[in-house]
Amino acid sequence: MTKMSYMEAIRDGLRVAMQRDDRVYIFGEDLGTYGGVFGVTKGLFEEFGFPRVRNTPLSENAILGEAMGAALAGLRPVPEIQFSDFITVCMAPLVDVIGTYRYRFGTNIPVTIRMPSGGGMSVGPFHSKSLEAWFVHAPGFKVVMPSTPTDAKGMLLAAIEDPDPVLFLEHKRLYNLVSEDVDPGYYTVPIGKGIVRREGTHLTIVTWSGMTYLALEAAKALAAEGVEAEVIDLRTIWPLDEELLYSSVRKTNRVVIVHEAVKIGGFGGELVARINEHAFGHLAAPPLRVGAKHCVPPVHPILEKAYLPSLQSVVDAARKVMAY
Predict the structure, then answer these.
(1) Which residues of the chain have pLDDT under 70?
(2) How wide is the angle at C-alpha 68 spanned by C-alphas 62 and 71, nearest 5°?
(3) Dihedral angle of Cα 320, 117, 4, 230, to the nearest 10 degrees
(4) Exposed e or buried b for every residue in 57-75, given b needs 16+ CB within 10 A?
C-alpha cells in the first residue's frame, strides 16, 4: 500500500489504466506538460508522451466531439473538462449525442469524462457548481462521485473499463485535503455500489463526494447527544444503490440527505421520492434535505460559507427529524 492524496490516487489510476491498455489516452486544456489546472495529470506527459497525453484548444465542444469520435474508432478516451461548470457549453454533444448514442445506433461510447466539481475554494460562480442532478435527469450516463482516494482510483479504473459514458466528478477541494493508503496496482471499485461510512441505529444520513466528511462530522457531534447516525456514502449517484438506501432506512426509520448542490431541484429530492415510494411504511418522520442555497456560488469566503451546507445545518436537520 502507498500513501496517496485524493489527487495522487486519481493520477495513479490514469497511469495504471494507460500502462494496462494502449487504447487509453487523456486530453484537455493545459493537461500536458502543465499537468492540468490542479496538477492531477502532472508527470504523465513525460511518462507517456504525445499523443497519449495531449493539450487541446479552449473548446469543450471540440473536446467532447473528439472523445466521441475516438470512442467510436475503438479507443478509450479520458477527456478532462477543466471545471465541471464548463460542461454547460457542450451540453448538445454530451446530452443529445453521447448520452443517446447506444440507444439510437446500438453502439457503445466508452468515454470517461473527468470533471473537477464542487466549491469551498472561494473561486466563484464559474468554478464552484455541483451539477450532478442534471446528468441523472439526462438518460445515458453513469454519474460517479467518489469521496476517498481508494474509491477515486478504483472507480476511475472501473469507469474506464465501462462500455458506456461515465461522468467522473472529482471534488476539487478533496484533491489535497484527504489521503490514505491506496493499492498501487490495478483494482476496481464497482460503479453503482454505495458504502456505510459509519454504522448507526437512530438516523440515516445519505450523502456523497465532499459532503461525506461533513456528514461524518455531524454524526460525531450527534453521538455526543446520544444519537447514533448511520452515514451512507452513495459514491455513485446513478445507477443508485437502492438496496443499501432502503435497508438503512428500514433500520433507522429516519433520514437526512446532505448534498453540496443547490437544494432546490437537487438529487436529494429524487431520493426523498424514492424513499417515499419504496420505504414509506418504515418512516418515523418525513425525510429532510440539506443543500446549498438557491443562489450563485459567491466568491467571498464568508459568503460562500453561508451558501454551502454547514455542520450546524446538518445537525439541526438531524435534531428536527429525531424530534418529530
Answers:
(1) none
(2) 135
(3) 20
(4) eeebeebbebbbebbeeeb
pLDDT score recorded for residue 210: 97
Is the pTM of the predicted complex or chain greater than 0.85? yes
How far apart CA 19 and CA 14 sit, in angstroms, is 9
CA-CA-CA-CA torsion sign (24, 30, 34, 37): negative
* Element containing residue 54 per DSSP (H, E): strand 53-55
Whole-angstrom distance, CA of residue 180 vs CA of residue 153? 12
Say how far apart CA 324 and CA 284 lie, in whole Å: 8
Distance CA 308, CA 232 (A): 20
**CA pair distance 156, 154, nearest whole angstrom:** 5
* Nearest residue to 114 via CA among 11, 212, 239: 11
- Contacts of residue 219, defined as CB under 8 A and 6 or more positions apart, other chains included, come to 198, 200, 205, 228, 229, 230, 231
User: Residue 291: its pLDDT value, please?
Assistant: 98
Q: What is the pLDDT of residue 57?
A: 93
Q: How many residues does the chain have?
A: 324
Q: Is residue 236 a contact partner of residue 188, using CB atoms and an 8 Å limit?
A: no
pLDDT at position 309: 97
Q: In what order do the strands lie in the sheet with 236-238?
A: 53-55, 24-28, 76-80, 112-117, 166-171, 142-144, 236-238
The C-alpha cell at 180 is: 490514505
Question: Which residues contact residue 38 at a Cβ distance below 8 angstroms, ignoring those fewer than 6 apart?
Answer: 7, 116, 172, 175
Give the strand pairing for 24-28 and 76-80: parallel
Q: What's the confidence (pLDDT) of residue 322?
A: 98
N-terminal to C-terminal alpha carbon distance within the chain: 46
- Peptide bond before residue 51 is cis, with ω within 30 degrees of 0: yes
AA identity, residue 80: E
3-class secondary structure, 306: helix
pLDDT of residue 300: 96
Q: Which residues are catalytic?
A: 127
